[in-house]
Structure formats: structure tokens, C-alpha cells
Write a structure and sequence with these properties.
Strand content: under 5%
Largest sheet: none
Oligomer: single chain
Number of helices: 15
Structural class: mainly alpha
């Protein structure tokens, strides 16, 4: 740029070396024309030079921008691959922790604090879940179907079973240790498989039936060798198994009708969580009055303890977190992995229950529990085949 400017100046000076030549038009008629041509040529050269510089600068910026964009895309792909790899691990861990924590906290509230109002505890937990889901929906964090009377009428049978399932689970957990509750819950799988066979004509393979036979043996041997056996607790647990299987089977039948009752023609898991918890509240209130729990809750000394309310509130939030973490884990993996991890998750729950609550064990009872856990894992793997 500097050299070109110098040439331009020299050329102008050269054309102006004799001022008298400009005045003698007759002697040199092309002088002015020559000078203007020179100026025009120099200006054209300057313009071309500047244009080339601009193009070069734009090209450099484009190349730098492209490189930055490619680097950002590479970084984004690396982050995506990292999230894809860690997603199942994180979601599975969250699901297992939520599931274990829920059982442990309920056992603490019902047994350690000797709280004798299982329906009231269920009402409080479901109230927390309902409020959280409604708030998340209002802030646009989750999407739920709009509830209408047609949907409510369709869902009521499922909800009645859902409430009964929760209440029976509360009372069984109060009287039975966590390890035996976990083993006895395997009976639910057997009842569900029988129900699927008669209602939906769904046949299971021989491995599944063999696994269920092992479950029956473990449940019976576990009950016989249970040093802390409680007939009332076992009765509640058997009722809970029947109700849990009924809930699973009824839900499959009601889902199609429920979807027809919504505007979108579908019903996601979050909407089902809201329906179950919201519709359970009025029925729970009725049951609290019928079973006389209101008077107990008002006069019980345990409700005056801040720590009790802390544990009860935490159980409400964790109960909701099970719904979300299970959906998250199922989305990250699939039904097969979800089922297997659910069965494996019973092992740490049982161990934690035995250690935390100092459950008296005999060698035969411990063997029955381990045998039942093995049967549960075998059942999950058999369902995959």
C-alpha cells in the first residue's frame, strides 16, 4: 500500500513538471486528457488493491469462523457422546437411590417412630407429589394432560386399587422387615403372569415359570424361618401382592379408554402420576375419618417432633422422584435393562434393611432371602429371553 501511494504521487508530479505546457493548448492539446487518464488509472489500481485486501481479510475471517465452528461442533459431539455414555449410569443410580430411600424412610416413619396412621402418611405424601407436579406444570417444566370428568370416571377404578395398594404396603412394612417384604413382593410377579395368561392370553416361556417356582419356594421358606414373623404383617403383604398385580393388569385395560378421554389422544407417565395422586386425596380423607386416624394424628406425640415431619416430607418428595427417575432410566436404557436393574436393586435394599434395623436372622432365613433375590434376578433374565 505504501509503495503504490508513492508511485501515484510521483506520477502526478511528473505530469505537472511544466505548468506552461498546460496553458499552451494549441501546442499540446492532449495534455489535460493524458493527466486525467493517469489519475483514473492510478485510482483504478488503488481501488483494485483495496478490494483485494478486503477480500483477503474477509476470507481470513471466514476461515477463522469456520475453524471455530468446526471446533464447537467437535466439542458438542464429544459432550453428546459423553452424556450418552453417562446417561444410563446416572439415571440408573438415581432410580436405585430413590427406590431404596423410599422404603427406608417409610420403615423409619412407621416402625422407628411407631406411627400408626398409614393412610394419613399416604395422604401427606400424595399431597406433596400433587403440589410439585402442578407447580412444575404451571412453570412449563413438564407437560400434563388437562383433566376432565370423562377421564376421571375412567381412571377411578385404577385409583381405588392404587390407594389400596399403597395403604396395604404401608401396613405390611410396619410389621415385617424390609428383606422379607422384598422377597414376598416376588409373589406379585407370579400373580401378574397368571393374570396375563387368563386375561390377555399372554404365554410365558418355561424359564419364567421355573423362576416363579423358585420365588414360591423362597417366599415359603423365608416365612417359615423368619425369626420376627408377624401374621398380621404377612396378611397385609399378601393383600398388597394381590392389589399390586391387579393394579398392573387393570392399568393395561384402562389405558386405552383413558387415552380416548384426552384431547391429544395420549396419556404420558407424568399425567398418570398426577391423576393417581390427585384423585387419591379425597378418598384418603374419607378413609382417614372412617378408620379414626384424624383423632390419633391430632393427639399423637410423634407429630410434635420436627424430625418426624422432616422424614415424612422427604418420603413424599422421594416418592415422586421414583416416578421421574424410573421414567428417565427407562428412556435412557429400555424395558429389558430397567427390569433387570429393578430386580438387582432388591439386593442392596434387603442388605440395608437388615443392617439399619438390626433384624434378627438365622442362617436358614438368610439363605432363604438370598435364594429369593437370586430367583428375582433369574425371573428378570428369563423375561428377556
Amino acid at each position: 500500500m505504501i509503495n503504490m501511494s508513492s508511485d501515484y504521487k510521483l506520477d502526478i508530479v511528473d505530469h505537472h513538471h511544466d505548468p506552461e505546457e498546460l496553458a499552451l493548448d494549441d501546442e499540446n492539446p492532449n495534455a489535460v486528457h493524458t493527466i486525467f487518464n493517469g489519475i483514473h488509472e492510478q485510482a483504478k489500481m488503488l481501488n483494485n488493491f483495496a478490494t483485494n485486501l478486503e477480500r483477503r481479510a474477509l476470507n481470513d475471517r471466514f476461515l477463522k469462523t469456520s475453524k471455530v465452528t468446526e471446533d464447537d461442533e467437535d466439542e458438542g459431539r464429544r459432550l453428546h457422546r459423553s452424556a450418552k455414555k453417562s446417561g444410563p449410569l446416572i439415571s440408573g443410580t438415581a432410580y436405585c437411590i430413590s427406590s431404596c430411600s423410599m422404603i427406608m424412610l417409610n420403615k423409619i416413619v412407621l416402625s422407628s417412630y411407631n406411627f400408626n396412621a398409614g393412610i394419613s402418611l399416604m395422604f401427606y405424601q400424595n399431597l406433596i407429589s400433587t403440589l410439585v407436579v402442578v407447580l412444575l406444570s404451571l412453570f412449563g417444566r413438564i407437560s400434563v394432560e388437562r383433566i376432565n370428568w370423562r377421564l376421571v370416571r375412567v381412571w377411578i377404578p385404577v385409583n381405588v386399587i392404587f390407594i389400596s395398594m399403597l395403604v396395604s404396603g404401608m401396613y405390611s412394612l410396619k410389621f415385617i422387615n424390609i428383606a422379607m417384604v422384598t422377597i414376598l413382593k416376588n409373589v406379585t410377579n407370579i400373580l401378574t403372569a397368571i393374570g396375563e395368561l387368563y386375561l390377555f392370553r399372554k404365554h410365558q416361556n418355561s424359564k419364567v415359570w421355573a423362576a416363579m417356582f423358585l420365588m414360591i419356594i423362597s417366599a415359603v421358606s423365608g416365612g417359615i424361618t423368619d425369626l420376627s414373623f408377624d401374621g398380621v404383617g404377612y396378611a397385609w403383604q399378601i393383600i398388597n401382592c394381590v392389589l399390586t398385580a391387579s393394579y398392573s393388569l387393570t392399568l393395561r385395560w384402562v389405558m386405552d379408554e383413558a387415552k380416548k378421554a384426552t384431547k391429544s389422544g395420549s396419556l404420558n407417565e407424568v399425567s398418570m402420576v398426577l391423576l393417581n395422586n390427585l384423585l387419591s386425596l379425597p378418598l384418603a380423607i374419607v378413609l382417614i375419618f372412617v378408620f379414626g386416624e384424624l383423632d390419633y394424628v391430632i393427639h399423637a406425640n410423634v407429630v410434635k417432633l420436627p424430625m418426624f415431619w422432616g422424614v415424612a416430607t422427604a418420603s413424599g418428595f422421594i416418592g415422586l422422584s421414583i416416578s421421574f427417575t424410573s421414567m428417565w432410566f427407562l428412556h435412557q436404557t429400555g424395558p429389558t435393562t430397567y427390569s433387570l436393574v429393578g430386580s438387582l436393586n432388591k439386593i442392596p435394599i434387603s442388605i440395608a434393611g437388615i443392617l439399619v434395623f438390626k433384624v434378627p436372622l438365622s442362617i436358614s432365613n438368610l439363605f432363604s432371602i438370598l435364594f429369593g433375590l437370586f430367583a428375582g434376578v433369574f425371573f428378570a433374565k428369563a423375561k428377556m429371553s
